[in-house]
Recover the amino acids of this structure.
């Protein structure tokens, strides 16, 4: 009989994630005495900053909540404002927004898959160490990321903190020839995605499950990204405006991020939640990749979130090709509709790379914000990450794993959620 | 053996470089990882020893420190002082580091207790007035923008490595915009800070038909009252100009002067 496990792991400012979070695991005589996920990020108080601001400031300011998903924040902000003012975007605007959203999803997922996650499976500290031994893979990652960023520039004016996206539509429309070129490049990217699937199929995804409740938008015939009903795997169904009943934010002592719960002590949002809730509306190629990588709904292994992201990459590339075909199939209509502010409130729910994001604003009759609320995917995930760490620590303690293994697996677990911590605290 | 890099026959050392972030969206650091076509060449210029967002196992032995974000809590003040102690060259990366950025908009209420309550209710939370890096330490070099433009970062970093001097444009965004042959946004009725904002971004927003929001701070001799006249003559609401002027914190002292 071996000695009972003792270890004390303190990871301050976990690396290869966005923002600042700490992992703490203390195991004594094989028993987990303490395990926690603590968010120590500084708050920036965006909900207060917005108060008194005229409506046109909202998307510009809120895009700045996040450097990775600025497009998603901008689109959620625009949707909340348009809902409040009773505006319905044109089909053209809707299609262009979705295409832009897809470019962000692809960019963010590829960054996570190759730059943040792959080094753990390949035994490296960073992607920099992989450049020489894995040149082909890194070139492929750079190619895919460049494609997504170029698409973001083309439709949104800028990949980060977009410039063309406004309440009512766009300030400018993309060049049609460049749109056709983007379509060709997307088509040519499909083999790269298949190779990415092969690469991740060669990784041993840790075997760990903890049953949880997955929350996402509900598909209405197509895989959902912008607006619609809210659904959970525990059978909760709500309207977009009822987002508060879905997110139930509350504060805990050891975190500057709020936490969320629904039918259980915690919930999960993100690619895995979307795939679990909406598998049948994924593009067939995406479903094939899911099959190849052993992802079937409902999957309760949080490490599979990375695989779900890969599946979504295939979906958004295919769907972008369809969107461009539709856009190029007709002449450009009006770029932007006029905005008439009115008193009232509106909600914008958007599926951003890390999960469902809600913006809610209340306006006075001049179109000034009187109250604002932003519920971030990672803040909804933080409680789930915390409980996962406890469960993982218990499992590893039982298995009598070595210190460094526990440390690495705990880090990998948090990374699998692709947390956007500064965003979660905002 | 790594090949030796030379410039005009002189050997160039790859400086040990670290990236840090205080209160920010981390988007400026993400911009460093963008522009994929030249990314490997760019990374070849520097020996990156600390970049938490992208790598584990960072080192605290570095010569150049890029710091993104503004100071909003006591522990950030402390971290910044530590970084200053170690770095030969401290670079403020982006508008939050240079001016406070959008974060400093919370200062305008002059009521931190209200700000805290609006977001966290009665839950205790620590924060302080948002300040740029230069309020605490000497900043050797500023890279402006929200976000920073990678082309400009590449140029500045190349000059830094070669030991060349670094000069920011003194003229306004308006000149770059005109040179690009854009339709003037004033004639479309759009507010724009192009005439008073420091150039260097190649009129990034106006090229996309969005008026300039002044994220790079004032150009030399920025004339705010003249801009006000232009906006008035195009019937652009004064509120729109004020919203932009206060957005990133670059014009804080210019506004104070104007109000005197």
């Amino acid at each position: 009989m071996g000695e009972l496990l003792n270890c004390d792991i303190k990871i301050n400012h976990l690396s290869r994630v966005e923002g600042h979070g700490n992992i703490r695991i203390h195991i004594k005589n094989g028993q987990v005495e303490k395990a926690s996920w603590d968010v120590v990020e500084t708050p920036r108080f965006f909900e207060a900053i917005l108060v008194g601001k005229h409506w046109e400031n909202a998307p510009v300011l809120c895009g700045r909540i996040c450097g990775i998903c600025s497009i998603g924040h901008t689109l959620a902000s625009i949707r909340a404002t348009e809902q409040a003012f009773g505006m319905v975007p044109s089909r053209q605007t809707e299609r262009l927004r979705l295409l832009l959203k897809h470019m962000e999803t692809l960019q963010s997922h590829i960054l996570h898959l190759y730059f943040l996650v792959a080094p753990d499976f390949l035994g490296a500290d960073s992607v920099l160490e992989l450049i020489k031994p894995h040149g082909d893979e890194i070139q492929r990652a750079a190619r895919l990321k460049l494609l997504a960023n170029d698409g973001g520039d083309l439709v949104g004016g800028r990949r980060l903190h977009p410039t063309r996206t406004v309440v009512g539509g766009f300030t400018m429309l993309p060049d049609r020839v460049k749109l056709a070129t983007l379509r060709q490049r997307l088509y040519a990217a499909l083999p790269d995605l298949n190779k990415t699937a092969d690469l991740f199929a060669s990784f041993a995804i840790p075997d760990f499950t903890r049953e949880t409740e997955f929350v996402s938008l509900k598909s209405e015939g197509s895989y959902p990204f912008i607006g619609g009903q809210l659904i959970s795997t525990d059978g909760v169904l709500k309207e977009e405006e009822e987002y508060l009943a879905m997110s139930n934010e509350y504060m805990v002592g050891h975190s500057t991020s709020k936490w969320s719960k629904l039918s259980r002590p915690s919930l999960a949002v993100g690619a895995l939640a979307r795939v679990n809730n909406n598998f049948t509306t994924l593009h067939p190629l995406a479903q094939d990749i899911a099959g190849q990588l052993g992802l079937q709904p409902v999957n309760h292994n949080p490490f599979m979130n990375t695989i779900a992201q890969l599946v979504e990459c295939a979906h958004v590339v295919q769907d972008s090709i369809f969107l461009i075909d539709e856009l190029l199939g007709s002449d450009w209509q009006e770029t932007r509709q006029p905005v008439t502010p009115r008193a009232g409130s509106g909600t914008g729910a958007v599926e951003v790379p890390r999960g469902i994001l809600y913006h809610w604003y209340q306006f006075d009759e001049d179109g000034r914000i009187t109250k604002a609320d932003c519920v971030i995917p990672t803040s909804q995930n933080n409680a789930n990450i915390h409980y996962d760490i406890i469960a993982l620590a218990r499992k590893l303690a039982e298995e009598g794993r070595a210190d460094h293994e526990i440390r690495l697996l705990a880090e990998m677990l948090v990374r699998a959620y692709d947390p956007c911590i500064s965003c979660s605290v905002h | 053996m790594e090949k030796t890099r030379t410039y005009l026959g002189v050997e160039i050392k790859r400086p040990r470089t670290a990236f840090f972030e205080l209160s920010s969206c981390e988007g400026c650091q993400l911009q460093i990882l963008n522009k994929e076509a030249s990314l490997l060449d760019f990374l070849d210029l520097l020996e990156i020893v600390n970049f938490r967002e992208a790598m584990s196992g960072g080192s605290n032995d570095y010569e150049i420190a890029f710091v993104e974000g503004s100071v909003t809590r006591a522990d950030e003040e402390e971290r910044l002082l530590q970084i200053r102690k170690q770095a030969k060259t401290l670079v403020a990366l982006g508008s939050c580091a240079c001016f406070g950025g959008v974060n400093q908009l919370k200062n305008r209420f002059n009521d931190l207790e209200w700000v805290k309550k609006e977001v966290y209710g009665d839950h205790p939370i620590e924060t302080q007035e948002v300040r740029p890096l230069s309020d605490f330490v000497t900043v050797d070099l500023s890279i402006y923008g929200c976000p920073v433009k990678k082309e400009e970062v590449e140029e500045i970093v190349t000059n830094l490595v070669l030991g060349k001097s670094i000069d920011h444009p003194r003229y306004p965004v308006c000149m770059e915009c005109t040179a690009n042959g854009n339709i003037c946004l004033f004639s479309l009725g759009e507010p724009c800070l192009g005439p008073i904002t420091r150039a260097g971004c190649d009129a990034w927003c106006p090229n996309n038909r969005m008026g300039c929001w002044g994220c790079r701070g004032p150009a030399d001799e920025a004339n705010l009252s003249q801009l006000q006249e232009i906006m008035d003559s195009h019937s652009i609401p004064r509120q729109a100009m004020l919203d932009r002027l206060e957005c990133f914190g670059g014009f804080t002292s210019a506004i104070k002067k104007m109000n005197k």
Q: What stands out?
A: Chain A has a mean pLDDT of 96. Chain A touches chain B through 55 residues (CB under 8 Å). Residues 91-121 of chain A form the longest helix (31 residues).
